[in-house]
Amino acid sequence: MSDLRLSGKCGVDEAGRGPVLGPLVVAAVMVEDDAPLIEMGVRDSKKLTRARRIELYSAIHQVADTEVVIITHDEIDEQRVNCSLNDIEARAFANALSRFKGSMIFADAADVDPDRFRRMVCNHLECDVQIVCEHKADEQYPVVSAASIVAKETRDSMMDRISEELGRPVGSGYASDPTTLSFLENWISEKGDLPPYARRSWDTSRRLLNLSRTRKLTDWTD
Q: Which domain range does residue 92 map to?
């Protein structure tokens, strides 16, 4: 839907803040009444199976207005030259909320200080808004749970497409994921550079590149 909403409850959350590979996705979900969300059983997306998230993703779109903002790996690298990750995320939250700024807004806090992050988001909005910003808001408010599901399933689908495009499994994109780490190591070993969709500003990317170059130099000198 494209009309501007001026009432109801709106939740906003992200997926992909920390990965070394792939985009950051922010989703906002607005409902007049969160009873349908409660009835369908929304909860923090991390506590749901992929199959259940896919089911809920479809169901949420039947009862809610949604807005999704995608920040690509390149955009993250470019913005990190002058901005912190919290700044990038706060701006993305505000962009996702711009259609729903007449609603009561509930947001999952990206900063260790929830009130500071709330102010950061408000600074990027063009009018006064009422925002409840808390840690683990996706466990407390159904609209934030719904937003977390939309954000995560959107990102997971994008990661699936990246695997298809590159012709090999890339995993979740998190450095803690053995599939992702193996993919990065093998790609760098084969190509001598980071793969497409890697965040070059990430410490993991720099470490793996440096390690690869050090190994090559050692092989040459031996």
A: 9-163
Count of residues in the chain: 222
Structure tokens at 182: 């193996």
Q: What is the CATH number of the domain that holds 182?
A: 1.10.10.460
Give Rg (Cα) of the chain: 19
Q: What percent of the chain has a predicted confidence (pLDDT) above 90?
A: 86
Within 10 angstroms of residue 153's Cβ, the number of other Cβ atoms is 23
24 within a domain of the structure (yes/no): yes
Contacts of 117 (CB under 8 A, 6+ apart): 86, 90, 107, 109, 110, 111, 133
Question: 111-144: string of b/e by CB count within 10 Å (b at 16+)?
Answer: beebeebbebbbeebeeebebbbbeebbeebbbb
Tell me the pLDDT band of 216, cut-offs 50, 70 and 90. Answer: low
Distance CA 158, CA 150 (A): 12
Give the tens place of pLDDT for each residue, 100-157: 877 899 999 999 999 999 999 999 997 778 899 999 999 999 999 999 999 999 999 9
CA distance 107 to 136: 9
CA distance 150 to 145: 9
Identity of residue 178:
P
